[in-house]
Design a protein that fits this description.
The complex is a heterotrimer of chains A (about 100), B (about 180) and C (about 750). Chain A is mostly helical. Chain A is about 80% helix and about 0% strand. Chain A is built from 3 helices and no strands. Chain B has about 180 residues and is mainly alpha-helical. Chain B contains 7 helices and no strands. The chains are: A mainly alpha (about 100), B mainly alpha (about 180), C mainly alpha (about 750). The interface between A and B is large, with 67 and 83 residues.
């Protein structure tokens, strides 16, 4: 099932990419990133079935890091929201120039 | 999972969950309301968990449901509710049609290239005989095959990840703190 | 080691004589240039008529007018009163210049005369030239050009003419230009011109000669446009220089071909190399034709003669020196100096003859209908130069040079005489504040009563140019015509074919054209004399009181030239008239050009039976006399009216007066298209559009564009950065995929 899994993984990943490029709501963009991570996890698990359990160990780590990242990222979004009263990415451009 | 070849039931379920995952992902990306989007993402994750189970990674599937769908997505939902961002009316937030088209083109290009790349032949000597994952689980249980490398080969990464979690907790608390007006 | 004498039998014989001081001869005028130039620079300079109100604004004739011929008081500052005209406020250094300017020339001439006498007595029939090398000028691999001066019989003749006639004209200029505000500048340019002319005639190789060639072109430009604040004069100077340049291109190409094929550019080296070249080859013919192109430019032949009439915008002594006696004869000298080339190319020599003859008659027809006295003389010069080219083209180098010498005498006399006339006219007009044209013959008439000395001398010159014996022109012109006739009967030229036409036919035709041109010469010169000096005076009642002869500083040189025009024929008496030594000049030049002349006549000196000779000469004289009689009887000065009241010409006369509209033709076919290409293609298209627009502004625009892209990337928005990231990933993955 490796090829099919990789196919699903690729499609999910691309959907995540399109979402990141298209959406302006910060939280939705963040969730698209999570989707991408999940797609990668699927690829890892599929490879683990063929190449050994190290793939699953890696998935383990990915999930951990994703959790940590989600926590910090959402904290940042909250801080942003308090500052700009919006999570619309197009209006957050203090780094402009 | 089955011994040797893949039965029809197995294949059918595999494709089913895969399809639902993709459809849920598409729906997730296109929702205007963040709450609806979160819920569709949760659906995707559930399907992915099912796929993990079908791929002999039961532990990972369980973790997926518990951690990802159950904790991370809940945090997302929590923040959305906290900031009161749930109303669809405020959020006509996708970029214009041209951008969507461009994004779609980029996506298709990426997809095509990934497919091309995955055509590479997998050398036989590097791959395990089919069904070896299932045999491990029968022998030792579902968790032991993951736990053993985790605490032996990848111990360093394990410890670093725990430090990372610590840092994340501290960072989240600091960043989320409301500013004091005095000082 | 500066100053080496090339070892030759001539140089050994000449060691210890004045020829060692050859280099002083051109250096003296150069010193004069420096002194006068410094004087001109340190004193306030004026570039034109001091009083613009006196400029001839009503003159419709374009680019011909010398606005002020030196007869005005130099009023510094604007709005001068005419009463100051009699009080000549001269240039501050006029005194020094009046001494230095002519003195260097007189000294140069005296030195040249001494050199000549010593050369004549020691090495008069030497076949080897005396060459003095000063330094290696261009040591570039195979090309070794030294800065050398050469002295042989030919260059000695030219030397004497240039310094002698030049000295006389310098003396004349002292009187003529003394009141001009730019007096030192004038003499500086004039001295510089003589320097370059001497370099030209004394050069021992083509590049040194070319330095002189270009230099006289430069000085011609400077002197024609001497009063350059009048745009017409500046235009005339530009025209002369540019047209000359076209000829110079031909000279250069010829030099390139000579070097490429023979490896040297020295005259004696090339002459030796010619021994191995067969006659009539395409290479030598091409080289000669390119050299002749240079000659048509410098010596005003068809098609590059158009600058010479316009050059009359310069001061009259300039016209006398440069455009009558010296610069325009440089082309004739070039062909004579390149005799070894032209002798091997009968077709090229025939071309020279044909163009010379055509120019002679063409210019003569135009001269019939010109009203400006200097224009008549200008076209006369072009016509007489045609004669000289007929001579050297036919291989009669001695005859051509002879006519060059006599022509310098009587043409200089004619120009200086006309200068004297114009001087008187200007004085008259100035005194009455009139704005009439002082050079137009319709405003003159009956001047013999007012300027008798000039009148007499000009008649001598007219008789000379018309070819009336015993004056100089008769002998020289007849020599050329006889040479052509003899070669038409039997010579290498007659055997050759020119554009398919047999050579003898061509030569006979040119002979007839020469006779016709002689007829016309007599007519228009007599016409000029008639309208200027005879008949009633049309200058005006009040002006008449002020007409008088020029001072002796100006008429003195005229007298000397008059004497030379009268007795100049003695230089080369023909065989059938043995009233004195026969063929002095031809024998003198024989060591230089003799072999080449014989090559063209197939080894035998051309002979004409004495009876036939008498017949031909008689015919020529008769034609001249008939021409003068036609003019005298048919042209009535009494019917002329002053220029202001004259009616415009009609019909063919109008065509003649407008010089066959050649200038207009050149303008339409060459000048305007060049202008258009320059302006539209080169300027707007390439310069403004391509270089300025695309490359200069385009690079700036490109840099700004890149900066704009850069700033667009720095939007501060995460979405943009995400896009860039994904595009980067796409690029990398593509690179891997497509590998």
């Amino acid at each position: 099932m490796l090829a099919e899994s990789l196919f699903f993984s690729a499609v999910l990943f691309v959907i995540g990419v399109v979402g990141v490029l298209t959406r302006r709501n910060a939280i939705i963009v963040f969730m698209c990133v999570e989707l991408m991570l999940n797609a990668v996890n699927l690829a890892f698990v599929a490879f683990a079935q063929v190449y050994g359990v190290a793939g699953q160990v890696f998935v383990f780590f990915v999930m951990t890091v994703a959790a940590a990242e989600a926590a910090v990222g959402l904290a940042i979004i909250i801080a942003l929201f308090r500052h700009n009263q919006t999570v619309n990415l197009q209006q957050i451009n203090l780094l402009k120039g | 999972m089955p011994k040797g070849d893949f039965s029809l039931v197995y294949t059918f379920h595999f494709y089913l969950f895969g399809l639902i995952a993709i459809v849920s992902a598409l729906l997730f990306v296109t929702r205007k309301s963040p709450v609806a989007a979160v819920l569709w993402l949760v659906t995707t994750m559930f399907c992915l968990a099912a796929l993990y189970v079908l791929l002999d990674a039961q532990f990972i599937g369980a973790i997926q449901v518990i951690v990802y769908a159950g904790a991370i997505m809940v945090v997302f939902l929590f923040v959305i509710m906290l900031l009161n961002l749930g109303h669809p009316s405020e959020l006509a937030d996708a970029r214009g049609a041209g951008w969507k088209l461009a994004a779609g083109a980029v996506g298709i290009a990426l997809l095509a290239e990934v497919f091309t790349l995955t055509r590479a032949k997998i050398p036989d000597r590097l791959s395990l005989p089919p069904g070896s994952g299932a045999q491990d689980i029968v022998r030792e249980g579902a968790i032991a095959p993951i736990a053993r490398p985790l605490f032996t080969e990848y111990l360093l990464a394990f410890e670093l990840t725990s430090v990372l979690l610590l840092a994340a907790i501290v960072g989240a608390v600091v960043l989320g703190r409301r500013r004091q007006d005095a000082s | 080691m500066l100053l080496q004498n090339v070892q030759s039998s001539a140089s050994q014989a000449l060691a210890g004589t004045a020829t060692q001081w050859l280099w002083v001869v051109p250096l003296l005028p150069l010193a004069g240039f420096v002194i006068n130039g410094v004087l001109a620079l340190i004193a306030p300079t004026h570039f034109g008529p001091a009083d613009p109100a006196l400029a001839h604004a009503d003159d419709a004739t374009h680019a011909t007018h010398e606005a002020h011929d030196g007869a005005h008081g130099a009023d510094v500052g604007a709005g001068a009163e005419h009463d100051h005209a009699d009080v000549a406020a001269r240039h501050r250094f006029a005194g020094i210049t009046s001494f230095v300017g002519p003195a260097v020339l007189i000294l140069s001439f005296l030195l040249s005369a001494v050199i000549f006498w010593q050369y004549k007595s020691v090495a008069g029939d030497s076949h080897e030239p005396f060459i003095q090398t000063y330094f290696m000028w261009i040591p570039a691999g195979d090309l070794q050009v030294s800065a050398s001066l050469m002295l042989d019989q030919l260059s000695l003749v030219m030397l004497l003419v240039v310094t002698g006639v030049g000295a006389l004209i310098h003396i004349f200029s002292v009187g003529y230009m003394r009141e001009d505000p730019g007096y030192p500048r004038y003499f500086a340019y004039l001295n510089l011109f003589v320097f370059f002319m001497l370099v030209l005639v004394l050069g021992a190789n083509y590049p040194v000669m070319f330095v002189g060639w270009e230099g006289v072109g430069l000085c011609s430009y400077l002197l024609i446009g001497f009063w350059f604040s009048d745009k017409a004069n500046a235009d005339a100077g530009k025209k002369a220089f540019i047209v000359n340049r076209i000829g110079d291109f031909g000279f250069l190409v010829a030099m390139f071909m000579l070097f490429a094929n023979f490896g040297t550019l020295d005259f004696d080296g090339l002459q030796a190399a010619m021994n191995g070249v067969t006659a009539g080859g395409a290479l030598v013919t091409t080289i000669c034709l390119f050299l002749f192109l240079g000659c048509t430019g410098k010596s005003a032949q068809i098609p590059l003669y158009v600058w010479l009439p316009d050059a009359m915008a310069g001061p009259t002594p300039v016209s006398a020196l440069i455009h009558a006696a010296t610069m325009v004869t440089a082309g004739v000298y070039l062909i004579a100096r390149s005799h070894f080339l032209f002798a091997l190319a009968p077709v090229a020599s025939l071309t020279v003859v044909v163009i010379g003859a055509l120019t002679a008659i063409f210019a003569a027809t135009i001269g019939l209908k010109q009203w400006d006295i200097k224009k008549v003389l200008a076209y006369s010069t072009v016509s007489q130069l045609g004669y000289m080219f007929v001579g050297v083209g036919a291989g009669a180098y001695g005859a051509g040079i002879f006519h060059l010498v006599t022509h310098s005498f009587f043409k200089a006399l004619l120009f200086l005489g006309s200068g004297s006339v114009i001087y008187a006219m200007h004085r008259a007009y100035h005194a009455t504040h009139s704005h009439d044209d002082a050079q137009d013959m319709r405003n003159m008439g009956g001047l013999r009563r007012f300027t008798p000395v000039t009148f007499g001398l000009m008649w001598i010159a007219t008789l000379a140019i018309a070819g009336i014996p015993p004056f100089a022109g008769f002998f020289s012109k007849d020599e050329i015509l006889a040479a052509v006739f003899a070669r038409a009967r039997e010579s290498a030229l007659a055997d050759a074919r020119w554009l398919g036409i047999p050579g003898n036919f061509v030569l006979y035709a040119c002979y007839v054209l020469g006779l016709a041109a002689a007829l016309l010469t007599a007519i228009y010169m007599t016409r000029m004399m008639l309208y200027t000096f005879h008949g009633p005076n049309r200058t005006g009642e009040k002006e008449r009181e002020h007409l008088r002869e020029a001072p002796w500083v100006m008429t003195g040189p005229l007298v000397v030239l008059g004497i030379l025009s009268a007795i100049g024929g003695w230089l080369n008496l023909p065989e059938f008239l043995p009233i004195g030594p026969v063929g002095t000049l031809e024998h003198w030049l024989d060591p230089v050009v003799g072999t080449s002349a014989l090559r063209l006549t197939k080894g035998v000196a051309p002979e004409i039976a004495p009876s036939l000779e008498y017949a031909l000469v008689g015919a020529a004289v008769a034609i001249a006399v008939i021409g003068m009689w036609i003019a005298w009887s048919r042209l009535k000065p009494e019917v002329l009216v002053p220029k202001a009241q004259a009616k415009p010409e009609e019909g063919f006369e109008r065509v003649l007066e407008h010089k066959y509209y050649v200038d207009e033709l050149y303008d339409d076919t060459i000048v305007r298209p060049t202008y258009s290409v320059s302006r539209n293609l080169l300027w707007r298209g390439i310069d403004v559009g391509l270089i300025d627009g695309l490359m200069v502004n385009g690079s700036a625009w490109f840099a700004r564009g890149v900066g704009w892209i850069g700033s667009a990337l720095q939007s501060g928005q995460v979405g943009t950065y995400a896009w860039v990231l994904v595009l980067g990933v796409l690029a990398v993955v593509s690179a891997v995929t497509l590998r």
